[in-house]
Write a structure and sequence with these properties.
It catalyses: L-homoserine + acetyl-CoA = O-acetyl-L-homoserine + CoA. By secondary structure, the chain is of the alpha/beta class. It contains 10 helices and 12 strands.
Protein backbone atom coordinates (compact mmCIF):
# COMPACT_ATOMS: atom_id res chain seq x y z
CA UNK A 1 0.00 0.00 0.00
CA UNK A 2 1.14 3.57 -0.59
CA UNK A 3 2.00 6.68 1.31
CA UNK A 4 -0.26 9.67 0.70
CA UNK A 5 1.66 12.92 0.23
CA UNK A 6 0.80 16.39 -1.12
CA UNK A 7 0.47 16.34 -4.91
CA UNK A 8 3.12 19.01 -5.55
CA UNK A 9 5.71 17.90 -2.97
CA UNK A 10 9.12 17.91 -4.75
CA UNK A 11 10.02 14.53 -3.24
CA UNK A 12 7.16 12.98 -5.22
CA UNK A 13 9.13 12.97 -8.48
CA UNK A 14 12.14 11.34 -6.80
CA UNK A 15 9.99 8.62 -5.24
CA UNK A 16 8.09 7.92 -8.46
CA UNK A 17 11.39 7.42 -10.31
CA UNK A 18 12.34 4.85 -7.66
CA UNK A 19 9.01 3.05 -8.10
CA UNK A 20 7.85 3.90 -4.56
CA UNK A 21 4.05 3.49 -4.36
CA UNK A 22 2.53 6.90 -3.60
CA UNK A 23 -0.86 8.52 -4.15
CA UNK A 24 -2.46 11.90 -3.71
CA UNK A 25 -5.66 12.83 -1.85
CA UNK A 26 -7.97 12.30 -4.84
CA UNK A 27 -7.20 8.60 -5.12
CA UNK A 28 -6.76 8.01 -1.39
CA UNK A 29 -10.21 9.36 -0.59
CA UNK A 30 -11.83 6.71 -2.80
CA UNK A 31 -10.44 3.87 -0.68
CA UNK A 32 -12.52 2.59 2.22
CA UNK A 33 -9.63 2.03 4.60
CA UNK A 34 -8.36 3.47 7.87
CA UNK A 35 -4.90 4.83 6.97
CA UNK A 36 -2.20 5.50 9.52
CA UNK A 37 -1.64 9.19 10.26
CA UNK A 38 2.07 10.00 10.65
CA UNK A 39 3.42 13.44 11.54
CA UNK A 40 7.07 14.18 10.66
CA UNK A 41 8.82 16.90 12.66
CA UNK A 42 11.59 17.80 10.22
CA UNK A 43 14.42 19.63 12.01
CA UNK A 44 17.04 19.10 9.30
CA UNK A 45 18.23 22.17 7.34
CA UNK A 46 17.85 20.59 3.86
CA UNK A 47 14.24 19.64 4.42
CA UNK A 48 13.46 18.49 0.88
CA UNK A 49 16.28 15.94 0.96
CA UNK A 50 15.18 14.62 4.34
CA UNK A 51 11.59 14.38 3.12
CA UNK A 52 12.62 12.08 0.27
CA UNK A 53 14.85 9.95 2.52
CA UNK A 54 12.18 9.33 5.17
CA UNK A 55 9.25 8.95 2.76
CA UNK A 56 11.20 6.34 0.80
CA UNK A 57 11.26 4.14 3.90
CA UNK A 58 7.66 4.77 4.89
CA UNK A 59 6.46 3.91 1.38
CA UNK A 60 7.75 0.33 1.38
CA UNK A 61 5.17 -1.28 3.67
CA UNK A 62 1.72 -2.88 3.08
CA UNK A 63 0.04 -0.09 5.07
CA UNK A 64 -1.56 3.09 3.76
CA UNK A 65 0.04 6.08 5.45
CA UNK A 66 -1.09 9.70 5.52
CA UNK A 67 1.88 12.06 5.92
CA UNK A 68 1.89 15.51 7.52
CA UNK A 69 4.98 17.70 7.97
CA UNK A 70 5.63 19.80 11.07
CA UNK A 71 8.03 22.74 11.49
CA UNK A 72 9.03 24.75 14.53
CA UNK A 73 7.17 28.04 14.90
CA UNK A 74 10.00 29.42 17.04
CA UNK A 75 12.74 28.85 14.46
CA UNK A 76 13.37 30.51 11.11
CA UNK A 77 14.77 28.15 8.47
CA UNK A 78 17.73 29.54 6.53
CA UNK A 79 18.10 26.79 3.93
CA UNK A 80 14.51 25.91 2.93
CA UNK A 81 12.32 28.39 1.08
CA UNK A 82 9.42 29.94 2.94
CA UNK A 83 7.21 29.04 -0.02
CA UNK A 84 7.98 25.34 0.48
CA UNK A 85 7.32 25.59 4.22
CA UNK A 86 4.06 27.50 3.74
CA UNK A 87 2.83 24.99 1.15
CA UNK A 88 3.71 21.69 2.84
CA UNK A 89 4.31 22.32 6.56
CA UNK A 90 2.19 23.20 9.54
CA UNK A 91 2.99 24.25 13.11
CA UNK A 92 2.19 22.67 16.45
CA UNK A 93 -0.62 25.08 17.30
CA UNK A 94 -2.52 23.79 14.27
CA UNK A 95 -2.29 20.08 15.14
CA UNK A 96 -2.06 19.81 18.92
CA UNK A 97 -5.80 19.09 19.13
CA UNK A 98 -5.34 15.97 16.96
CA UNK A 99 -4.24 12.40 17.60
CA UNK A 100 -1.56 10.73 15.46
CA UNK A 101 -0.72 7.07 15.08
CA UNK A 102 3.00 7.73 14.68
CA UNK A 103 5.51 10.55 14.77
CA UNK A 104 9.07 10.93 13.50
CA UNK A 105 11.48 13.51 14.94
CA UNK A 106 14.55 13.96 12.73
CA UNK A 107 18.06 14.95 13.63
CA UNK A 108 19.24 18.56 13.72
CA UNK A 109 22.64 20.30 13.36
CA UNK A 110 22.54 21.72 16.89
CA UNK A 111 24.25 18.96 18.88
CA UNK A 112 27.18 21.15 20.00
CA UNK A 113 24.72 23.37 21.88
CA UNK A 114 23.33 22.51 25.28
CA UNK A 115 19.73 21.41 24.84
CA UNK A 116 18.40 24.49 26.65
CA UNK A 117 20.42 26.76 24.33
CA UNK A 118 18.59 25.56 21.20
CA UNK A 119 16.22 28.34 20.20
CA UNK A 120 13.23 26.00 19.81
CA UNK A 121 13.93 23.75 22.82
CA UNK A 122 10.94 24.95 24.84
CA UNK A 123 8.61 24.33 21.89
CA UNK A 124 10.18 20.91 21.26
CA UNK A 125 9.68 19.83 24.88
CA UNK A 126 6.03 20.86 24.62
CA UNK A 127 5.69 18.68 21.51
CA UNK A 128 7.44 15.73 23.17
CA UNK A 129 5.17 16.03 26.22
CA UNK A 130 2.13 16.17 23.94
CA UNK A 131 3.30 13.10 22.04
CA UNK A 132 3.14 10.85 25.13
CA UNK A 133 -0.67 11.15 25.21
CA UNK A 134 -1.50 11.92 21.58
CA UNK A 135 0.86 9.70 19.54
CA UNK A 136 0.97 5.90 19.66
CA UNK A 137 4.74 5.71 19.04
CA UNK A 138 7.43 8.27 18.22
CA UNK A 139 10.63 7.48 16.31
CA UNK A 140 13.51 9.82 17.22
CA UNK A 141 16.58 10.03 14.95
CA UNK A 142 20.15 11.16 15.85
CA UNK A 143 19.92 14.50 17.73
CA UNK A 144 16.18 13.85 18.01
CA UNK A 145 17.11 10.63 19.87
CA UNK A 146 19.47 12.51 22.18
CA UNK A 147 16.75 15.09 22.87
CA UNK A 148 14.26 12.34 23.77
CA UNK A 149 16.76 10.56 26.04
CA UNK A 150 17.47 13.83 27.83
CA UNK A 151 13.90 15.08 28.14
CA UNK A 152 12.04 11.85 28.87
CA UNK A 153 14.72 9.88 30.75
CA UNK A 154 17.28 12.39 32.07
CA UNK A 155 20.22 10.99 30.08
CA UNK A 156 22.47 13.72 28.69
CA UNK A 157 25.03 13.77 25.90
CA UNK A 158 28.77 14.38 25.84
CA UNK A 159 31.18 15.72 23.19
CA UNK A 160 33.35 13.21 21.35
CA UNK A 161 37.10 13.74 20.78
CA UNK A 162 36.36 13.77 17.05
CA UNK A 163 33.29 13.43 14.87
CA UNK A 164 31.72 9.99 14.67
CA UNK A 165 31.35 9.70 10.91
CA UNK A 166 31.18 6.53 8.84
CA UNK A 167 29.37 3.24 8.35
CA UNK A 168 29.75 0.97 11.36
CA UNK A 169 28.98 -2.63 12.22
CA UNK A 170 26.24 -3.22 14.81
CA UNK A 171 25.01 -6.24 16.70
CA UNK A 172 21.52 -7.09 17.94
CA UNK A 173 21.41 -6.89 21.73
CA UNK A 174 17.81 -8.01 22.23
CA UNK A 175 16.61 -10.44 19.56
CA UNK A 176 13.20 -10.79 21.22
CA UNK A 177 12.29 -7.18 20.42
CA UNK A 178 9.81 -6.87 17.52
CA UNK A 179 11.55 -3.77 16.17
CA UNK A 180 14.53 -5.92 15.15
CA UNK A 181 12.55 -8.86 13.85
CA UNK A 182 14.29 -10.21 10.73
CA UNK A 183 17.59 -8.40 11.41
CA UNK A 184 20.88 -10.12 10.73
CA UNK A 185 23.16 -10.82 13.72
CA UNK A 186 25.47 -8.13 12.32
CA UNK A 187 24.33 -5.18 10.22
CA UNK A 188 25.63 -1.79 9.09
CA UNK A 189 24.40 1.74 9.61
CA UNK A 190 25.75 5.28 9.02
CA UNK A 191 26.54 7.70 11.85
CA UNK A 192 27.30 11.40 11.63
CA UNK A 193 27.59 13.28 14.94
CA UNK A 194 29.94 15.08 17.29
CA UNK A 195 28.30 13.88 20.51
CA UNK A 196 27.29 10.60 22.10
CA UNK A 197 25.28 9.18 25.00
CA UNK A 198 26.56 7.03 27.85
CA UNK A 199 25.77 3.40 27.02
CA UNK A 200 26.28 2.41 30.65
CA UNK A 201 23.54 4.81 31.80
CA UNK A 202 21.19 3.40 29.18
CA UNK A 203 21.84 -0.16 30.34
CA UNK A 204 21.19 0.88 33.93
CA UNK A 205 17.97 2.79 33.21
CA UNK A 206 14.89 0.78 34.16
CA UNK A 207 12.63 2.40 31.55
CA UNK A 208 14.87 1.89 28.49
CA UNK A 209 16.00 -1.19 26.58
CA UNK A 210 19.19 -1.13 24.53
CA UNK A 211 18.34 -3.11 21.41
CA UNK A 212 21.47 -2.65 19.30
CA UNK A 213 24.93 -1.14 19.64
CA UNK A 214 28.25 -0.80 17.85
CA UNK A 215 31.68 -1.47 19.35
CA UNK A 216 32.93 1.66 17.55
CA UNK A 217 29.88 3.96 17.44
CA UNK A 218 28.22 3.08 20.75
CA UNK A 219 24.53 2.76 21.59
CA UNK A 220 22.43 2.69 18.43
CA UNK A 221 18.78 1.59 18.83
CA UNK A 222 16.89 2.03 22.10
CA UNK A 223 13.27 1.66 23.09
CA UNK A 224 11.22 2.84 26.01
CA UNK A 225 9.72 -0.20 27.76
CA UNK A 226 6.24 0.73 26.54
CA UNK A 227 7.39 1.36 22.94
CA UNK A 228 6.17 4.97 23.07
CA UNK A 229 9.63 6.29 22.24
CA UNK A 230 12.14 4.67 19.88
CA UNK A 231 15.58 6.30 19.78
CA UNK A 232 18.11 5.75 16.96
CA UNK A 233 21.46 7.54 17.21
CA UNK A 234 22.47 6.97 13.57
CA UNK A 235 21.02 7.67 10.15
CA UNK A 236 19.57 4.58 8.49
CA UNK A 237 17.60 6.95 6.24
CA UNK A 238 20.77 8.35 4.62
CA UNK A 239 21.43 7.94 0.90
CA UNK A 240 24.67 6.26 -0.21
CA UNK A 241 26.19 9.66 -1.04
CA UNK A 242 25.12 11.64 2.05
CA UNK A 243 28.25 11.09 4.14
CA UNK A 244 30.42 11.92 1.13
CA UNK A 245 28.58 15.20 0.61
CA UNK A 246 28.87 16.06 4.30
CA UNK A 247 32.61 15.32 4.19
CA UNK A 248 33.08 17.59 1.13
CA UNK A 249 31.00 20.33 2.76
CA UNK A 250 33.03 20.24 5.98
CA UNK A 251 36.35 20.29 4.10
CA UNK A 252 35.14 23.26 2.05
CA UNK A 253 34.39 25.04 5.33
CA UNK A 254 37.97 24.44 6.43
CA UNK A 255 37.03 22.10 9.28
CA UNK A 256 39.57 19.62 10.60
CA UNK A 257 37.55 16.60 9.52
CA UNK A 258 38.66 13.01 8.99
CA UNK A 259 37.55 10.63 6.25
CA UNK A 260 34.30 8.81 7.12
CA UNK A 261 35.26 5.38 8.44
CA UNK A 262 34.47 2.11 6.60
CA UNK A 263 32.70 4.13 3.92
CA UNK A 264 34.67 4.87 0.75
CA UNK A 265 35.95 1.79 -1.11
CA UNK A 266 39.63 1.36 -0.16
CA UNK A 267 39.32 4.69 1.72
CA UNK A 268 39.47 6.54 -1.58
CA UNK A 269 37.12 9.58 -1.52
CA UNK A 270 37.14 9.61 -5.32
CA UNK A 271 35.38 6.24 -5.43
CA UNK A 272 31.61 5.86 -5.22
CA UNK A 273 30.50 4.52 -1.81
CA UNK A 274 28.06 1.62 -1.63
CA UNK A 275 24.81 1.56 0.33
CA UNK A 276 25.24 -1.37 2.75
CA UNK A 277 22.35 -0.49 5.07
CA UNK A 278 19.35 -0.11 2.75
CA UNK A 279 17.63 -3.43 3.54
CA UNK A 280 17.86 -2.96 7.30
CA UNK A 281 16.62 0.62 7.01
CA UNK A 282 13.49 -0.58 5.22
CA UNK A 283 13.07 -3.42 7.71
CA UNK A 284 13.31 -1.17 10.76
CA UNK A 285 10.78 1.36 9.46
CA UNK A 286 8.46 -1.46 8.39
CA UNK A 287 8.69 -3.13 11.81
CA UNK A 288 8.07 0.18 13.57
CA UNK A 289 5.01 0.97 11.46
CA UNK A 290 3.59 -2.52 11.88
CA UNK A 291 4.34 -3.55 15.45
CA UNK A 292 4.55 -0.22 17.28
CA UNK A 293 2.02 1.84 15.34
CA UNK A 294 -0.49 -0.26 13.36
CA UNK A 295 -0.79 -3.10 15.89
CA UNK A 296 -1.06 -0.73 18.86
CA UNK A 297 -3.08 2.27 17.66
CA UNK A 298 -6.87 2.33 18.18
CA UNK A 299 -9.08 2.29 15.10
CA UNK A 300 -10.81 5.37 16.47
CA UNK A 301 -9.01 7.65 18.92
CA UNK A 302 -11.18 8.55 21.91
Amino acid sequence: MPIKIPKLLPAREILEEENIFIMDETRANTQDIRPLNIIILNLMPEKERTEAQVLRLLGNTPLQVNISFLQMATHQSKTTSQLHLDQFYTTFSNIKHRKFDGMIVTGAPVEMLAFEEVDYWEELTEIMNWSTDNVTSTLHICWGAQAALYHHFGIGKFELPRKCSGVFSHIVQDRSEKLLRGFDDEFYAPHSRYTDVDQRKINEHKEIKLLSYSEEAGAFIMSANNGKQIMITGHLEYDASTLSEEYSRDRHRGLDIHLPEHYFPKNDPNRQPLNRWRSHAHLLFSNWLNYYVYQETPYEWE
